[in-house]
Amino acid sequence: MGVTKTEIFTEEQNNIALFAKAFGHPARVAILQHLFKINTCVCGDLVTEIGLAQPTISQHLKELKNLGLIKGNVEGTSVCYCIHKENWVNMKEVILQFLNQDITSANCC
Amino acid sequence: MGVTKTEIFTEEQNNIALFAKAFGHPARVAILQHLFKINTCVCGDLVTEIGLAQPTISQHLKELKNLGLIKGNVEGTSVCYCIHKENWVNMKEVILQFLNQDITSANCC
DNA sequence: TTTTTTCATCGTAATATTGCAATTAACAAA
DNA sequence: TTTGTTAATTGCAATATTACGATGAAAAAA
Q1: Which of A20, B36, B41, B47 is deepest in the core (most CB within 10 A)?
Q2: pLDDT averages per 10-residue partition of chain B, 109 residues
Q3: Which residues of chain A have a CB within 8 Å of the CB of B109?
Q4: Which single residue has its CA nearest the C1' atom of nucleotide C13?
Q5: Pairing of β A42-43 and β A78-83
Q6: What is the pLDDT of residues A17-66, one digit of tens each?
Q7: Is B108's CB within 8 Å of A14's CB?
Q8: Residue A21 · residue A69 · CB < 8 Å
């Protein structure tokens, strides 16, 4: 029915899925990459950088912020965004543990 | 319009997003985890293991297969699935490169 | 104060995703 | 052949996501 049955999965499985969804869209990937590349707060140039309409970027930023992967500071009329280091490291741990499952001993067809 | 504007992003950004979407749903996370845990081909018990209806599981398996992350062998009336090792390693490389962007020197607010 | 700048929010349209009942397809077993 | 088993496919309903124009809010600039 279009709604994910989160209740039948573990918290870990739901967390992995939530984080993965965060960079499951190229616009959010591009936003995060830009924040890493600039390596400091970014005030306002994300719209021209990415090439989507301002409300669309704002929406993607909101999702990333809700997940805690970025934070935003108001500076006058503009807002400066940057990676939330601590939460990024936490997210990375969760995803890495999933990606690094042992595959070497797999006895497959 | 509900449709992602893939044409304005790089191939790398689109690839990261595609792979991330693959485990952006807890059912697919659970399927992959089970395949890793069993560490061999799995024939048929995924439906009872995960707890979703058979057509739903079949659909998630199809997505993972289309992305190349798993492969399926027909064995009589049943189908055996397992991780596609080589493609999994490739996917891991792509995601890791994205996750491991340097954050230490970030000069943030 | 008025205007401008910058970003968030609202409302809406288009498309995508999730989930399942019903059916079909392919094969094994009787 | 008929029956049973297993998994894919079809069709559909419900919900989620993506994108943007229009508008609103807040602060700086004139």
Answers
A1: A20
A2: 90 98 97 90 88 96 97 91 94 97 74
A3: 41, 71, 73, 80, 82
A4: B1
A5: antiparallel
A6: 999 999 999 999 999 999 999 877 787 899 999 999 999 999 999 999 99
A7: no
A8: no
The two structure tokens encoding residue B96: 């890791």
In a domain, A103, yes or no: no
pTM above 0.90, yes or no: yes
Taking the CA of residue A66 and the nearest CA in chain B, the distance in Å comes to 16
Q: CA–CA separation, A10 vs B9, rounded Å?
A: 34
Query: CATH number of the domain that A29 lies in?
Result: 1.10.10.10
Is residue A4 assigned to a domain? Answer: no
Give the domain range for residue B67: 11-95
> Would residue B68 count as lying in a domain?
yes
- Residue A34 to residue B95: CA distance in whole angstroms: 16
Residue range B55-78, pLDDT digits in tens: 999 999 999 999 999 999 898 899
- Asked whether residue A56, judged by its CB, lies under 7 Å from any atom of the DNA or RNA strand D, the reply is yes
